[in-house]
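not sure who needs this but someone in the group chat was asking about Coatomer subunit gamma from Vanessa tameamea so here u go. i didnt clean anything up, its just raw.
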Amino acid sequence: MSSFKRDKKEEEDTGGNPYLNLDKTIVLQEARYFNETPVNPRKCSHILSKILFLLNQGEKLSTQEATDAFFATTKLFQSKDVMLRRMVYLCIKELSSLAQDVIIVTSSLTKDMTGKEDMYRAAAIRALCSITDSTMIQAIERYMKQAIVDKNPAVSSAALVSALHLSSTAPDLVKRWANEAQEAINSDNAMVSYHALGILASTRKNDKLSTVKLVTRLAKSPLKSPYALCLLIRLAAQLVENDDSDASQPYIDFIECCLRHKSEMVIYEAAHAIVNLRKTARDLAPAVSVLQLFCGSSKAALRLAGARTLARLTTKHPTAVAACAVDLENLISDPNRSVATLAVTTLLATGAESSIDRLMKQISSFVSEISDEFKIVVVKAIRRLCQKFPRKHQSLAAFLAGMLRDEGGLEYKAAIADAIITLVEENPEAKETGLAHLCEFIEDCEHTTLAVRILHLLGREGPKSRQPSRYIRFIYNRVILESGPVRAAAVSAVAQFGAQRPELLPNIRVLLARCELDDEDEVRDRAIYYNAILDSGDQQLINDFIIDVPKPNPVLLEKALRDHIATNPDEPFDIMTVPMEEEKKEEKEDIAAIEVRKPKQMTIEEIYSEQLAQVPGIEKLGSIFKTNMPLELTEAETEYRVRLLKHVYVRHIVLQFECINTLNDQILEEVHVRLECPPEYEIKSIVPCQKLLYNQPGSVFVVLEYPSSYLDSLGTFGATLEFVVRDCDPNTGNPDPGEGYADTYPLEEFYMGCSDQIRARGMGEDWETTWDRAANVPEISDTYALPEQDPAAAAKSVCEYLGLPKATIVGEAVKEIRGGGVFRGGAPFLVRARIASSNVGVTMLIAARSPREDVAQLLLAAVG
């Protein structure tokens, strides 16, 4: 027990990390000390600590290094020191996945596992199960069963947790230990009971009937362990979610009964389950009452749990939370800032319009005391409030402007700017107020990216305001005072005023002429560029290159340019073939989120670009035009799941069949797809999937060339999956000897439509102007009788066929579709359709305009 002693001097010297600058080579050399006899337990423990530290810091050991360290560590089994032995077990666990021939220590670990020293047994079980594979675990099955029902809780828990890990590799074997786990559920130790229930739930997760029986039986005889009871509540909640019938009522009654449990943990788990399950506010009352009590608790953890859950509930049932307003207001002054911030955001989300001013006064003193991350949460709550109560925009905008003048980082300032920008874009009455606040802010803005963004907004919204000239001074000040990127953005913003307000054009030309003398190349180039376009007087040119400029996806544009330079450097590059950058959809934010690290959003084309790179010669097809959303070709519960992605190029289409094998006793090899194409299509190449393992996706690619005529591109395809089946061991995945046998699997037919080949573009407010400007373009129109009985349903159906968003539908009694976009190859088009009820049903008059007449014909053929 000498290893438990520490010198007083050592206790006092606690500064720094003693393992900070470890060198892997030196530590591995020190491990050779394990071969000496006798050994110093204290020194050995210190060396093992260094090895574990290096491994947990991500240091990579070669197989030989790990094997040498592993076998040197096994020499320490000769020591009887308790602390050293436990360190040995830890090190064996960590090195077992890196070293070779680790099975050699099985006998030593088995001996410790079945010995009389309880300090060894639990750690030995964990180490043994980590190095033993599914084929050898049967040799210790008897010992594992004994350990599960052992009287020592540490040993029992170690066996149960190890069994839980083994269930992923040997599920059938672990199922045989169900009787022992069932016995362990009744243990007086809370953790043993919890782990035992975890084993039973894990082995029955794919068997709904067994899970129902387990939950029903345990719900009638409440468990002693609060941890196990929490897990049981979660299992019951899952059953309720998956069953909408009255048969789930007993589980709901059980969860509600747990609201009266003596353990706060169980009470919260039950309240949390009810809040996330129930649909009506009436059923939420008991859970909300419990959470309300938590808000008044003396324990910070309970106050946080109550406030956080009520905040989440606000998004679905704000009226149910309104009763807790008094308790939440008391939390505004809570010393825990997480609790206070949640209380504030919840009050903002549930408060009435009449209480907004009072809340703002309470928050004004609160905001100055919290950090930026909490301020951002408050700003987002105010932003939602602006959308909820548009008439309060004056006071809310003034409050945000005050926050904008305070000290803060870029992220905080950007959140406030986002809120004001949203206010400007969504509330016409607030446009002048919001723009004035932003103009005042950029006078002293120290963040380049934020200044550029606000200038872009002023250029877009300023010309549409009642007094556009008032904003030009603020914008031009940036040309005089700011850095290069901000000056360039200011030039672009000024050009917007000249393009959209003819009365200001002479003054704008003077300002742009001055910018042509700027020291920055980008500023000069932009000024010359915009001056030349404005001097032309061509309204179409001004619209296409200043007002409504297409924005290609930058990632795909870079890839398209690289491919173009590598394959066709002498030919002109058509930017219209590159997919446009999609507008970011406003996601519903979680009120309770204090800090959210959102992953970078990627388009579907970016997601699949690496997979498409596997296709030989893919760069010769040019830049990708569009990737369509996946289409399921099989039912969800079939043995093989296949979905189709259509990657559209100018003259070709790549069909990607994503396949998943759901049978764990089979491996599919040489997987390919046999297509039945319309006669005008030509198959260029097929890239098969060489091996499809259990539950691991693989893809088959088929490259097709489009017909020369656009009208011939519409058609139905048949598909059959062909492969070689090889049986395998379901536990290890090793294939059985033999060559396997050929088999096929029919897939559903799929249609190549017009919507697959076009990319819709958002049409601005000046739709009529855009349509009139295309008056000289070839137009094709026709009248159709539609099968639908309702004009609204018919309009949605037409939009689906044409690949247009639902936002293009306007009108009430008479539905009108106003859409446009680009066809593969870069040909633009406009579509206008009027749909109304008539005596014979629903009638549609549709017209399409495009520089290419065959594109207009295709659009009408798609709905004809």
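also Residues 755-863 form a domain with the TATA-Binding Protein fold (CATH 3.30.310.10). if thats useful
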